[in-house]
Automatic annotation (TrEMBL):
The keyword NAD appears for this protein: no
Entry GO CC: plasma membrane
Underlying gene: LOC105141805
UniProt name for this protein: Ankyrin-1-like isoform X2
Repeat positions for ANK: 71-103
Key words, A-Z: ANK repeat, Repeat
InterPro entries assigned to the protein according to its UniProt record, in alphabetical order: Ankyrin_rpt, Ankyrin_rpt-contain_sf
Source organism (scientific name): Populus euphratica
């Protein structure tokens, strides 16, 4: 593309193109195969007040409407990305004026809306990723029957919108989610690694309880949908705990979600809350589904075993004092016969503050090696103590293999 024509396209100056051969306008290309429409749309920092340049160019060279650059991006992809809603309307109107495909019967407008780039993103993916709610409204109302599938990364438009973590775009993101849920007849909630838009919203955290309610009103089965590691939405809410509100919403829609155990270590959301030291999350889960306290992992550990494994003495004491259902688990044994207090006895050798937590008496019984809590604490059983301490480290990872840690984000 000649530099003079490139600059004219950037500025939306139609003059230099008036005397150019109409049939050759689509051959004016940059090294990335951007057409004059791509160049124009990329250079508009805000929505153009007038659409004359796009109108006139398409009038003279209609093939530019569907012409993609090297990345497979059509003018509609760029107009959606940059939020040029007036241009989006022009492009759709131009496509509507063309005859439908004779074989499929699909209109040219819908064909354009469904076109994907090299990463299989549609224009709706682009609009969702950049929180362009006005564009999302236009696109979804034009083709409400289409269930926009995932791109090469496994991301659907709804997942992308839910996963945006940008405070400045918070309200726009909520509008994008609303438009997709309201206008699309068939919504795809999927994301990468088996996650859903609800997993994503919980991880991000902004206004998550409100978003969760909207998603569950549309699709109640999301509470039972797990990622590739078997983590439910409740697991995520326990791990990324910020306030009880999202847990309340999830349990309100389906309290049985508290029974879902992950694939490998068979941990429930209550186990995850315990290992993270999230006492208020534990309270909420137990309140919503008291019987889930009975569930153990693949080693026979209950939630109180995990509260010890968190090595958060304060959190453990709060569980004992304020959650009676968990306090009653103190005598329950794992597959090796160890109660939570057997674990504490070993931990007290490493972290002396735990000595104060040890109870007196023989109520905890013996483990399968015939050892009491006192034996482990005061006896010469260094190898067994070390074995228990190693077990406290082997509690599994967070979602998708992440290490267990509390992520500090804005509160819900």
């Amino acid at each position: 593309m000649d530099p003079v024509l490139f600059k004219a396209a950037e500025a939306g100056n139609i003059g230099p193109f008036e005397n150019y051969q109409t049939c050759s306008l689509n051959q004016l290309l940059t090294p990335d195969e951007n057409t004059i429409l791509h160049v124009y749309l990329k250079n508009q920092s805000s929505e153009p007040e007038f659409t004359d340049f796009v109108d006139i160019i398409l009038e003279r060279c209609p093939p530019l409407l569907f012409q993609a650059n090297k990345r497979g991006e059509t003018p509609l992809h760029l107009a959606a990305r940059y939020g040029h809603s007036n241009v989006v309307k022009v492009l759709i109107d131009r496509a509507k004026a063309l005859p439908a495909d004779p074989e499929s019967g699909v209109t040219k407008a819908k064909m354009m809306l469904r076109m994907t780039n090299g990463e299989r993103d549609t224009a709706l993916h682009e609009a969702a990723r950049n929180s362009r709610s006005h564009v999302v409204e236009i696109l979804t109302k034009e083709d409400p029957e289409f269930s926009y599938p995932a791109n090469v990364h496994g991301e659907t438009p709804l997942y992308i919108a839910a996963y945006i973590d940008d405070y400045s775009w918070g309200q726009e993101r909520e509008k994008v989610i609303d438009e997709i849920l309201t206008n699309c007849i068939s919504v795809d909630y999927g994301g990468p690694n088996g996650r859903t838009a609800l997993h994503a919203a919980i991880e991000v955290g902004d206004h998550v309880s409100e978003t969760a309610r909207k998603l569950l009103e549309k699709e109640k089965t999301l509470t039972k949908t797990t990622d590739e590691n078997g983590w439910s939405q409740l697991h995520y809410a326990a791990y990324y705990f910020r306030s009880p509100r999202v847990l309340k919403v999830l349990l309100e829609y389906d309290a049985s979600a508290a029974y879902i155990a992950e694939t490998e270590k068979k941990r429930t959301a209550l186990h995850i809350a315990a290992i993270q030291g999230h006492v208020n999350a534990m309270k909420e889960i137990v309140s919503g589904c008291p019987a889930c306290c009975e569930l153990v992992d693949n080693r026979g550990w209950n939630a109180l075993h995990y509260a010890v494994a968190s090595k958060d003495k304060k959190a453990f004491e709060e569980c004992m004092e304020n959650i009676p259902e968990l306090a009653r688990l103190k005598t329950k044994k794992d597959d090796k016969g160890n109660t939570p207090f057997h674990l504490i006895a070993a931990l007290a050798h490493q972290q002396k503050q735990w000595i104060l937590v040890l109870d007196e008496g023989d109520i905890y019984g013996l483990n399968k090696r015939k050892l009491s809590v006192d034996d482990i604490y005061v006896g010469d059983f260094g190898e067994i103590q070390e074995e228990i301490l190693e077990s406290l480290e082997d509690v599994g990872s967070g979602p998708l293999g992440r290490r267990h840690k509390v992520l500090r984000r804005r509160n819900d």
